[in-house]
Write a structure and sequence with these properties.
By secondary structure, the protein is mainly α. Helices cover about 80% and strands about 0% of the residues.
């Protein structure tokens, strides 16, 4: 089954509908999400507006990119140290 990615604005709208009085069962049926996904969104993004949520997602993506860059540099450094050690 193909996973659907929800945009930050959609997640925010779904959470607002819940706050407006819709039940979790109604929302999960309507949007085709699991109740676990809904509760995870609620825990992570509860009380945020769409723009705040979008910015948070951008920061998470940037953080992931920086972690990957760091990992690559650390591996390069390790390889360089091994080469230098072999030459000595």
């Amino acid at each position: 089954m193909k996973r659907k990615r929800f945009k930050p604005e959609e997640i925010s709208r779904i959470l607002k509908e819940f706050e407006g009085g819709k039940s979790v069962q109604e929302l999960t049926r309507e949007y085709g999400i699991s109740s676990a996904s809904f509760y995870k969104w609620r825990q992570r993004y509860g009380g945020m507006e769409g723009s705040e949520l979008k910015r948070m997602k951008q920061l998470e993506e940037e953080n992931l990119k920086l972690k990957r860059m760091y990992t690559e540099l650390a591996l390069d450094l390790e390889v360089a140290r091994e080469v230098i050690a072999k030459k000595l």
